[in-house]
């Protein structure tokens, strides 16, 4: 069973205090800027430096991995006029899923799930999304590419994604999170089937000598 981390780092602090409460820490924060429209797609990757959008003719997706460098997150907030409460929620990774509508954008939080087939435990990673008319910013703790399938659709221009606005990109990212839930359910079902077979055909591992294999 997954154990929730205790929120002790923010105890006693005033609202809007920026404190990273997660456990994933890396030397660097990685930024990827994907700019696209119906005809073209551009990419920039940087480390510890916010990439600059080249032109107003593109939609801009800032993919940010690594939240422990609070000053960088704060700079992003200033660049996109993000409310301090949004930044607080981004860094405090024990938030519940939420939807909030601000004057200059919409803020979402979702939980990405990981399943360990060996330990049979589920772990979570908070994904935060803030988007406006021509930009979207996604925040995650780890360096894992949670949205590889979305990048592939953008690269190949599959479906309507390159022709739609940032609200559709936000929907697509959330859809990728939910799709992964079903993959985990399949993995858990496989684990349960394996446990059931172990109990039925190898009962000596689960009970004393009085137990006998089922016929």
Structure commentary:
This protein has one domain (30-205): CorA soluble domain-like (Beta Polymerase, domain 2). The protein has 215 residues and is an alpha+beta fold. The protein has helices at 70-79, 84-91, 148-156, 166-201; strands at 30-36, 41-47, 59-65, 98-102, 105-116, 121-131, 135-140. A 7-stranded mixed β-sheet has the order 2-1-3-7-6-5-4, sandwiched between helices. It starts with 29 loop residues before the first strand and ends in a 14-residue tail after the last helix. It contains 4 helices and 7 strands; from the N terminus they run E-E-E-H-H-E-E-E-E-H-H. A hairpin with a 4-residue loop joins strand 1 (30-36) and strand 2. Helix 1 runs antiparallel to helix 2. The radius of gyration is 21 Å and the shape is globular. 29% of the residues lie in helices and 26% in strands. The model is unreliable at 1-8 (pLDDT under 50).
What keyword list fits this structure?
215 residues, alpha+beta, Beta Polymerase, domain 2, 4 helices
Q: How is this structure best summarized?
A:
With about 220 residues, this protein is α+β, with helices and mostly antiparallel strands. It has 4 helices and 7 strands; from the N terminus they run βββααββββαα.
Counting H and I runs of at least 4 residues, what is the number of helices? 4
Estimate the strand proportion: 25-35%
User: Quick check: average pLDDT?
Assistant: 84
Number of beta strands: 7
Give the SSE map.
Layout: E1 30-36, E2 41-47, E3 59-65, H1 70-79, H2 84-91, E4 98-102, E5 105-116, E6 121-131, E7 135-140, H3 148-156, H4 166-201
Parallel strand pairs: 3-7
Antiparallel strand pairs: 1-2, 1-3, 4-5, 5-6, 6-7
Helix pairs in contact: 1-2
């Amino acid at each position: 069973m997954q154990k929730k981390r205790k929120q002790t780092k923010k105890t006693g602090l005033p609202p809007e205090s920026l404190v990273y409460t997660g456990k994933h820490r890396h030397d660097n924060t990685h930024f990827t800027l994907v700019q696209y429209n119906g005809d073209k797609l551009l990419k920039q990757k940087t480390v510890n430096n916010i990439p600059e959008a080249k032109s107003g003719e593109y939609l801009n997706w800032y993919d940010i991995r690594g939240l422990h460098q609070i000053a960088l997150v704060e700079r992003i907030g200033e660049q996109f006029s993000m409310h301090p409460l949004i930044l607080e929620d981004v860094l405090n990774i024990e938030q519940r899923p939420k939807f909030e509508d601000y004057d200059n954008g919409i803020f979402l939080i979702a939980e990405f799930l990981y399943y360990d087939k060996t330990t049979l435990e589920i772990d979570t990673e908070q994904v935060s999304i803030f988007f406006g008319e021509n930009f979207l910013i996604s925040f995650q703790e780890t360096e894992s590419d949670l949205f590889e399938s979305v990048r592939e659709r953008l690269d190949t221009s599959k479906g309507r994604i390159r022709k739609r606005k940032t609200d559709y990109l936000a929907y697509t990212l959330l859809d990728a999170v939910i799709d992964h839930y079903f993959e985990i359910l399949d993995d858990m079902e496989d684990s349960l089937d394996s446990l059931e077979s172990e109990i039925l055909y190898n009962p000596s591992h689960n009970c004393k000598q009085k137990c006998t294999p089922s016929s």
